Amino acid sequence: MQLIDRSAVRLTFGDDLFMRRHRGLGSPVVNQFAWRFDERVAAEDLVRMRDALAHGALARRAHRALVPAARSRWSRVAEPPEIVRRDEPLDEHEVMPWLRWLGATRLDPSRGDSWRLIVADIADGGAVVSLLADHAVADGGAMLDAVERASAGRPPLAVPTRPRLAKALVADAHDAATQLGSVARWGAKGLRPPAQPPKRPPGSTDRDRSGGVARRPAGVPPSGWTPPTVVVECSTAQIAEAAARHGGSPNTWFVAVAAALASTSGIAVAGRPVRVALPVSARTPDDIRSNATRIAHVDVEAGVPVARDLTDVRTRCKQAYSALGAAVPAADGSLLTLVQMMPTVVVRRLPAPPAATVLASNLGAVSDAFCAPTGREGPRARSIAALAGPRQVDRAELAALGGGLMAWTCAVGERTTLTVSALDPARVPDDATLLDAMTTVLSAWDVEARPW
User: Fold this and answer.
1) Is residue 37 domain-resident?
2) Where are the residues of the annotated region Disordered (predicted)?
């Protein structure tokens, strides 16, 4: 088992922000992977997967710091969660409603209830296995790494056990002093006049000076409304061919499709570029962090997709990735360090930064180990879908989020899944409306789609 320094398992700003969602700052966010199998999954295979995951990075609990200004810490959870198997098989049309229902599961990392493993058989044959993890505990990269280690039998990354009270107090006092010193240095640096005005990020436009947000306000959600979420399977070869025909890669094709969906659905403002957020993993080998994702931004002209050359999108994406890589995080603290010290009642009153219209997360071609999550002896998934984001939102949270679309894609051999969730009840009120928009956009690229 990999030994980890305790200093590496303090909650980061991202971890802390997602934990605050359990304390009234919005609603909790659950990350979810779903594996579709053409055969049933044996109970012993699931137990092997669960037990392996229980020794890794997902098995953690959040503890509030004992000293003001210190960051909360993670500690190891010894007991694995129970495997939940649905009693009745799912009909094909019940798969997505079931996954959406699972996504609303209330986890609580402060009690060590951080992840779940659930399985359901499909009436016509096969099975669906779902892995849930609270976003405070793991981003997509952390979940990928945990499953790959468990499946391949690699050494797990385990956080340490909780220290005794005296050691915890000393460690928290040291962390508080470090954080306060970091904020002081940042504040002193902020008093100096800048050497030159800040440059605008590559790919941004003069037509949108307000953070790149070119979308209409989201509507008011009806009572009990959940964001529509659709998963479709596409041919990996068709996507590659469509991208190549238009001078792009599967990644730039995905970015263009996500922007076109915002335009087709009416979420984006006609004639304005669509700002797309591109998650980029900052995870390093043996990285124990729960959340290690940075965001690049690119503005995409959302015209008729089949008539557009993807070379411009590709160039803009490269510029955005380069700009993100050049923006090295400051070593002497930042405003985020200060915000993490504030109580939730104060953080709730802070203005939210402008959000992109679309989030487009491309997981790429996943590994063989991830495709066979129960281990080498277990079955291989036919396709895999990633789902995330708030599953139940009220009017206040929807206003804070600002609407928009969230999209994920990952490839398993000849099949690529595309998952899209919409946060605009006025323009995309249900799954049928979202699926219609997805079918329209994908058809323009000559890419066939099979809904889950």
Assistant:
1) no
2) 183-228
